[in-house]
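Usage

Read records sequentially. Each one opens with the input sequence:
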Amino acid sequence: MRYRARAVLGALLSIAVLAPSAGAAPAAPPLTRLLQTRPGLAALTGAAGSPAARKLIGQADLELARATVASLWLDPGHAVAPAYGASVFAHSRAALVDLEHVSASVAPAGPVAAAETSILAADRALAEGEIWQAAGGSGGLLARASGMILSGDRWALTTRLDLGAVQYEVAWEDAFGALTDLVVVRTTFVSGAALGRAAEAALRDPAIAPAGVRLLPHRRALTRGGKPELLFVGLESCRFCAIERWGLVVALSRFGTFSNLHLSQSATTSPPVVRSFTFAGSRYESPYVSFAPVELFSNVPRPGGSGYQPLGRLTPAQRPLLRTLDRNATSPFVDLANRFVDAGATVSPARLSGSPWGALASSLQRPRTLSGQAIAATAEVLTAEICAATGGAPAPVCGSSVVRDYADRLARFGGSGGGCPGLARSVKRSGAERPIGKPRASATSQPARHETIAPRSVVNGARAKG
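and closes with the structure output:
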């Protein structure tokens, strides 16, 4: 076993160090590598000399099948956001544990070591890819992520190869934490001038065409704590909700402060995929407006593949609002103080599909980018609505010429951003699903880690402006 571990480390380092060199063939992305490992395991099962070994190899193959399901992958090089994306590491680690128990006396050592190398290389590449995506983020988190890569390499020299996968998972999570901080800061601290220029450019682009806003005269005001309330109802799996969240985060950050925002994405099994945020577990504070987000369903498939796991729950007061104001049961649903209702996305998510989180956040400072213009248009529509509900406060935000221009156009916008069906059964649903304000548990049980890692504090938010 010690010989096999050294062979794995040697092959792993060859992949990591030599593959990027000039003239070397590019390494297969993580998903491709895991998929390519499975035929070798099938052949190894036939060559195993005992029923116990065949069972272990078969179990390893099953774990790789679970690690490579489409819902876990944004593309061949990147897993979905935590916590669901961590399932890739949990299942690959389980495969390594099974292979570690295959004795060299009953199965060829070379093919077993090759499979172990391939699995570890996939996990390592997945972590390194996230570190690269988070460039410019928290130096401390990225340094720790790089250190965990080296720790995983050290474990590859031992008989506990699976602990190498654990270290690579920690590296991936730390890198994702750095990416989250980076994206949230860039999204919540957007230059008003850049946002305005992008929003003005969006008005000149017929392909963006913000959707018309439904005005609600003579309805009792929707308030909380003496402030107008913005109610958002969405589905994590819905790409139309995904683009609306970008606009909501930008707009609301002009009036208050978010905390505990996390990255998410629409369902990868329903392309095009739009990377975004989730409001599950988030908090928002503002002296001007209250925010009540309800993410009804997650983007994690139900066992058996029928729909998605429930996440949030409508209150008895919210349920009749949707029945009355969103008769087509379309998400996203936005009700601002019972003065404005948006059922469906403000703009089409097509401009954001396939773009990484970092690129989308950076586009907000680049008014000529199509994704920046789409997000800015959504943000300015929502800002104009909030300003109408707050009586024009704060003045530095609501007095902007762009905000006033969008406010004049609210009822005249004629586009259609589109939406996702699926709210009807959510409105009728009763039961004790967990409220939206509580943090979501991980989708997978977390294995014990080799090294103690201090809890990560995700610091994100924006100061109230004005």
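Summary fields computed downstream for this record:
- Confidence is low (pLDDT under 50) at residues 430-466.
- The longest strand covers residues 290-301.
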